[in-house]
Amino acid sequence: MSNVVWLGTPAFPEAAKAAVADTRMRANLRKATGTIRGKRLAVAGELDDWEDLRTAGAAVKRETLRHLDTHLLRLEESVTAAGGTVHWAADAAEANRIVTRLVQATGESEVVKVKSMATQEIGLNEHLAAEGIRAYETDLAELIVQLGDDRPSHILVPAIHKGRSEIREIFQDAMGRWGAPAPEELTDEPAALADAARLHLREKFLSAKVAVSGANFACADTGTVAVVESEGNGRMCLTLPETLITVMGIEKVLPSFTDLEVFLQLLPRSSTGERMNPYTNLWTGVTPGDGPQDFHLVLLDNGRTDTLRDTVGRETLGCIRCSACLNVCPVYERTGGHAYGSPYPGPIGAVLTPQLAGVENAASLPFASTLCGACYDACPVKIDIPTVLVHLRAKAVDAKRGPVPTPEALVVKVAAATLATPRRLSLAQWGAGLVGRLSRGGVLRRLPGPMARWSDTRDTPAPPRESFRAWWRRERNGR
Questions:
Q1: Domain termination site, one of 283, 304, 325
Q2: 40 falls within a domain
Q3: Is it the case that residue 1 has pLDDT exceeding 60?
Q4: Closest-CA residue to 216 (of 259, 244, 253)
Q5: N or C: which end of the chain has fewer CB within 10 A?
Q6: Does the structure show a pLDDT above 80 at 7?
Q7: Domain with 79 in it: what CATH number?
């Protein structure tokens, strides 16, 4: 079963209400996202052609999606020619079966993993565990989430909701159950935490025979696959094991190797606020005597082809998973990622998740936005997230249509009937003016029915005591 939407999680409004009450989480988020925002603005401002790079990146992505089938077939040919094996997975279940079969063929019961959104999307770790195979996350933030039996809350920094003291407690409590235990006198200093993780993971790196990775990009003309990271864990996973299995969404393909020039400038500046990624890992098939000798590329659809059919929503597939939109979103900063109920949180999750999982399965997410447009301004490939959100909101409303009208539909029908004739509008304005004259201090204390949810959380100004029409008639008659 696909893990695009976490089963059992409440809809965004209910989850967000609980998240907003977590003051420690909000403080962690505010500090982290604020720091990343400042760094991104600084390094992007260093480039005179930053906007040109964004335009170029958007153009490459649009062209790729327009001819996705051609580029994917060419990628398969290139990877195969370089000694790799390509597998096609229509959905999460098929992808999980393929990866499980490949691991079982090696005779191993453990794999090390590079941080991968695609494997989170399909729930690979859980599927492998059910088949007796243990997956070890090697990215520091993913390790924290795994040891804490938690879920990621950010695309780039999955443990962004955790503070240093919380991480120390997780390491002390759980590391010993997964491998080398944490030092007894472990402090919450970042260097000490990183050193504990390094010692814990080293034995896994040196003993692992199979690695599973995601992919940031794959070049159709050469078959080259790219993974960028900041810690070196990816380099260890991608070079030491004998077998490497990469699970990649089909939208990650690029037409040519030269296209990397644009994205390797856009991605680090937009994600971590760095001029370049500390580790840029590129490999092409299999090289005798160097690196993994058995390479498999699993191309994952899982709703992407359906998304591609949507002429408005398809631009979402251009996302390069930089997380810039999360770091500028006022909603995400207050609710965190868990409220979105998906591995893809924030603005991009609000548009990507409903398309991959079906709008009916994530109907509240398109409304998890103020439509302020900050995400569009920050996106390195110019995905117009606000426009897609509005588009998906319309779909969510249409999906709820039935023989019994929804409360929203009833409100719209009443409004349409009121605005249909000048007389009805005048009567409505007279009634509103009466409410305004009876109100105290110009504020309505509590609205009736479901509208009370609005007035319970904010001041509701009373309607004006006199409508413009009435004022105009009075003024004209006075002349």
A1: 304
A2: yes
A3: no
A4: 253
A5: C
A6: no
A7: 3.40.50.10420
Prediction pTM value: 0.89
How far, CA to CA in Å, does 148 sit from each of 142, 143, 162, 196, 250? 10, 8, 10, 15, 31
DSSP designation for 440: B
Across the range 440-468, mean pLDDT stands at 83
Q: What are the structure tokens assigned to 475, written together?
A: 């003024």
Cα gap 229→235, rounded to integer Å = 9
Residue 241 lies in a domain: yes
**End residue of a domain, out of 304, 338, 365:** 304
Structure-token match 């009443």, residue found: 414
Average pLDDT of every residue of the chain: 93
Domain of residue 467: give its range. Answer: 407-478
CA nearest 294: which of 243, 245, 246? 243
Q: Is the pLDDT of residue 478 over 80?
A: no
**Are 290 and 423 contained in the same domain?**
no
DSSP 36-102: HHHHHHHHHTT-TTHHHHHHHHHHHHHHHHHTHHHHHHHHHHHHHHTT-EEEEESSHHHHHHHHHHH
- Contact call for residues 267 and 319 (beta carbons, < 8 A): no
| Cα angle for residues 209, 213, 218 (degrees, 5° grid) | 125
The answer, yes or no, to whether residue 291 has pLDDT greater than 50, is yes
Inside any domain, residue 116: yes
Q: Find, among 212, 186, 189, the residue nearest to 199 by Cα.
A: 186
Count the domains in the chain.
2
Query: Is the residue at 22 inside a domain?
Result: yes
Name every residue whose Cβ is closer than 8 Å to that of residue 296 and which is 6 or more positions away in sequence: 84, 85, 86, 87, 102, 243, 244, 245, 246
Res 334 pLDDT > 80: yes
Closest by CA to 305, choosing from 18, 88, 21, is 88
List residues bridging with 238 in a β-sheet: none
Handedness of CA 410, 411, 417, 423 (dihedral sign): positive
With 0-12 CB in 10 A as exposed, 13-18 as middle and 19+ as buried, what is 88? middle
Domain check: are 234 and 91 in the same one?
yes
- Cα distance between the two ends of the chain: 74
DSSP class per residue in 259-302: GHHHHHHHHHHHHTS-SS-SEEEEEES-BTTBS-SEEEEEEE-T
- CA 134 → CA 115, 181, 214, 244, 391, distances in Å? 15, 17, 17, 16, 41
pLDDT band per the 50, 70, 90 thresholds, residue 2: low
CA–CA dist 438, 435 (Å, integer): 5
SS3 5: coil
Helices (H), 329-421: 330-335, 346-357, 374-378, 385-399, 407-419
